[in-house]
Write a structure and sequence with these properties.
Length: 69
């Protein structure tokens, strides 16, 4: 089984690669279209939440965290 990896994009989404299921608060599963990598919105501006639709580029979202390790 491949490892699940999350990449925090500068000023953008969380890119999640690997086997993952995305559920809402009621346990319903979102359709990820069988993609190997999905982008989860962290700016809040997407019209397709929880997925990124590129709106972060227009809303001025700024975030560029770096890991200490
Ligand atoms: S991170 Fe891309 S629309 Fe929110």
């Amino acid at each position: 089984m491949s490892e699940t990896k999350i990449v925090v994009r500068d000023h953008g989404p969380l890119l999640v690669s690997g086997k993952v299921t995305v559920e809402d608060a009621e346990g319903n599963v979102f359709d990820t279209g069988g993609k190997e990598t999905i982008a989860l919105c962290r700016c809040g501006a997407s019209a397709r939440r929880p997925f990124c639709d590129g709106a972060h580029r227009e809303c001025g979202f700024q975030s560029a965290e770096r890991a200490d390790g």
